Amino acid sequence: MSTEDKANEISAGAQDQESITPPTDPEQTAPGKGAGGPITLFFILGLVASLVLGWVIFPQLLYSKKEQPIQFNHVLHNELVDDGCESCHFFREDGTYSGVPKLAQCIDCHEEVQGESEEEAKFVNQYVIKEREVPWLVYSRQPDHVFFSHVAHVKTGQMDCVTCHGDVGESESLKPYEANRISGYSRDIWGENIAGIKFNSWDRMKMDDCSECHVRNNVNQGSVQTLRGGCFVCHK
Amino acid sequence: MKIDRRSFLSFVIGGAAGTALTPLPWKLTDDISIWSQNWPWTPVPQKGETTDVQSTCTLCPGGCGISVRRVGDRVVKIEGVDGHPVNDGGVCMLGVSGTQLLYGPTRVQTPQKKVNGKWRSISWDTALAEVVDTLGELRSNGQSHSLACICDSDRGTVPELLNRFLTVFGSPNFIRTPSIQDNYELALYLTQGVRAMPGFDIQDSDFILSFGSGLIEGWGSPVYMFRSNSALKEKGGRLDQIEPRLSKTAAKSDKWVAVKPGSEGALALGLANVIINEGLFDRDFVENHTAGFAEYKKLVADGFSPAVVSKMTGLDVAVIAALARDFAGARKPLAICGRGAGTSPGSLQDFLAVHVLNALVGSINRTGGMVAVPEPDYINWPDVEMDAVAAKGMQQPRVDGAGSGKYKSTRYLLNRLPEILNSGQDSPVQVLFVAGANPRYSMADTEAVAKAFDKIPLVVSFSSYMDETAASADLILPNHVFLERYEDVPYARGLPRPYIGLAQPVVEPLYDTRHTGDVIIELAQKVGGTVAEAFAWESYDACLEESLGDRWDTLVEEGFWVDAEFSASAQTQEFETDSSKFEFSNSDINALPVYHSVRLAGDESFYPLLLVPYDTMRLASGYIGSPPFLVKSLEDTILKGNDVLVEVNPETAKKLGLSDRKYVTLTTPRGKAKVKIYLFDGIMPGVIAIPRELGHTAFDKFLAGKGVNYNTLSEPLEDAATGLDAAWGIRAKLSKA
């Protein structure tokens, strides 16, 4: 039973209850017809208020917005490098994935201010000169109990970065980072849409999205440790 | 329109229905579950580049190669190095727990000085100045020999630097902590005329006769011995264990022979009696490469006939004869001794009896036998030049009496120190350095030891941890822990070939600690004069690199150096004795007191039971306190809550009216403790056993207050032959609590 089916059933149940209640209350039945009016009105009021709360107010309350420390231009950098995404987001020799570049990599080019961009000047002055790592906010950071291997997907599975991350490489600026106030993770994990509706493969990064692709492509579902499917494939 | 209770209810129901139609409940459930997985106290490894650093573990004298995995700057795992000559990929529980010793709460983070019984953090400059001032006073008063140092080893650069410091300062009182190594080295010295270390080629043997040695309980280099034991079994070899208790080694042996505790040496002599009488000895070796056989033959013939030995050991004559025939009949038999993990020296006569048994079957310097491993040869520093004070100080006899008089062959006698300190008015030791040792915990008769140490005006501890000795010291100059420093590992205990390991820093020092090597060099330079001249190195690291010379590069790259050419069989059968032969007896051996079983302290009528300590791999032995990983792993037959369990045979318990897992009072002539009973068929009736390495009073809450320290109940028993502590237990009684 889907979420919505369940919700419908509950509300149907509520309506049933309402249709039974009037005759049991002599005070309300006394004036005769018209007694159902305000009750239905209040029901609808409650319904509408909660729908507004759940669909509009709740998502706004749930996420806090933060700007990235530096506005990074992917397009600009992509034009200057030879190896696409992997120029900066590279794999280490042992196959582990380096993730967001560290200051040490940026310094190769940005030891001094190169262009006229304010953001670059800010980057050099606040981070390069002070030898501070940039506290980038990672949109795709998964909880720690998720074991995900980039090399298995990108090298062995020959997948493009775009398949999961979308056209990040074509962005000229970084969108605000929205952090879930309860779990602390990025909004991009659950997806922009609060109902979890997605149109692109990169719109959501929940467990179901992993398994959906794995099932569709008939990827080996067994874990290395147990040779059996299930939890240990991704949860080590 | 009236807003009444029904309208309100209706609003609530509408709200509930509406909420169910939004993602709110499902999203909240999901978020809360993730939130609960990320509570701040849940440990999460940091992200970053994974690197492995090759190093050598120095937590025990085993010399295992370790590969330390780091993520970013954080050590996350310690593993054994594949293909390493000592441990070949294996690692013990303590080694694995090394991360807890690096990051745990018990580390001393800055130099500490005790002021009115409270610790106060001080700077390195102040701490060193304080030591230098006191040392200067000693020298100007002509009391340089009242400086003493206790160290866990006398080999390798750090112990040698300490020893050199004492020498050039003018004190002969460098003391190594005791272990079976002392007796094995003496046995080699007396019979083969060589100052060397014992090596055991167990994996190439086909019959190991172990006189109580815990081959899989920490004896020798623990992981090497595990591997040797496995190799022995895989090749169809046999292990017979002679021990009054069913230890783990006994349980895994092919034959367990329970003898009366303390009679192991007598059994060895009894076996020799049978082997000689039945002509089962190695004629070629005995005739061509030994001397003094006739006297030895007479000794075992006169005093150790199977009938006599049967009475001493409690074994049937037939069992003794069969054991002797099996041992001598094996192709490559090897006898080993030293009880448990070998932390207590024992009696020289026992070691001689067992060592000589090997000579009888020709298992000296051959494959599958015992070999004298040469002392490390790489420390060739220029001779020290002593000034008048130092020369005078070095003329003084050692405070522990080792190396002269009746104990002339013994090198160090730490166990005699408490009595000597307690017997006089003023302590003959004015300043004591303690490095890599925790004597206040590990020496027998804790009370007497504490009293003795309290008499020393200045005790300086170099410990990285707040152990018992450090906690009662006056000054702590904390060393880096093993994952933060360079250090050479000059040998692997029991390995049958020369070996050097190198401990390398894996992380930058976490706290304001300093390498003990650097501290000694700095102290020397501050003392000045000839003392400073003897320490011309810029730093410890420079000294180490210079000392290791050509081997440095290999060591940095591979982590170890091993003499590949060296093998037991390639060793000469020419010995360094006067006769150039292996000497069954000679004037030194004959001068030793005649063999007798070591009688324990305590009146038999008042203390009817024999209390013996035992070792387990689940607890660290030596000066390292067991980290929480180890303590957590203890079976509840060893420790239950904070109570230690004492193994008692059901028969003994029945006689005393005691029942399983109940509290009792354990009393010995030295102390009293509340313990629990563990009924165990594997312990001989009349004997009870208690684990070592529990009952700490220092370290952290994970270790302190758990169980009882055996040493608080025991007392040392001076071996008349060596002066070493020969006690293997103590008399005791159990009474209902």
SSE blueprint and pairings:
The complex is a heterodimer of chains A (236) and B (737).
Chain A: H1 3-24, H2 26-29, H3 36-62, E1 63-66, H4 74-80, H5 103-110, H6 118-128, H7 150-156, H8 161-165, E2 177-180, H9 187-190, H10 207-216
Antiparallel strand pairs in A: 1-2
Helix pairs in contact in A: 5-6
Chain B: H1 5-20, H2 24-37, E1 50-56, E2 65-71, E3 74-80, H3 93-96, H4 98-103, E4 112-115, E5 118-121, H5 124-140, E6 147-151, H6 157-169, E7 174-176, H7 180-192, E8 196-200, E9 207-213, H8 222-234, E10 238-242, H9 248-251, E11 255-257, H10 264-277, H11 283-289, E12 290-291, H12 293-303, H13 306-313, H14 317-329, E13 333-340, H15 348-360, E14 370-374, H16 388-395, H17 417-423, E15 431-435, H18 439-442, H19 446-454, E16 458-461, H20 468-471, E17 475-476, E18 487-489, E19 499-503, H21 516-527, H22 529-533, H23 540-548, H24 551-558, E20 560-562, E21 582-583, H25 587-591, E22 609-614, H26 628-632, E23 639-640, E24 643-648, H27 650-656, E25 663-667, E26 672-679, E27 687-691, E28 730-736
Unreliable spans of chain A are 1-33
What pattern of helices and strands is seen along the backbone of chain A? HHHEHHHHHEHH
Residue share in β-strands of chain B: 15-25%
Helix amount of chain A, in percent?
40-55%
Under the CATH scheme, the architecture of the largest domain in chain B is: 3-Layer(aba) Sandwich
Instruction: State the end-to-end distance of chain A.
Output: 30 Å
Helix segment tally of chain A: 10
Counted by DSSP, the helix tally of chain B is: 27
Q: Fraction of residues of chain B in helices?
A: 25-40%
CATH classification class of the largest domain in chain B: Alpha Beta
* Class from secondary-structure proportions of chain A: mainly alpha
Per DSSP E runs of 2 or more residues, the count of β-strands of chain B stands at 28
- Which pair of chains has the greatest number of interface residues, and how are they split between the two chains? A-B, 50 and 36 residues
- The secondary structure category of chain B is alpha/beta
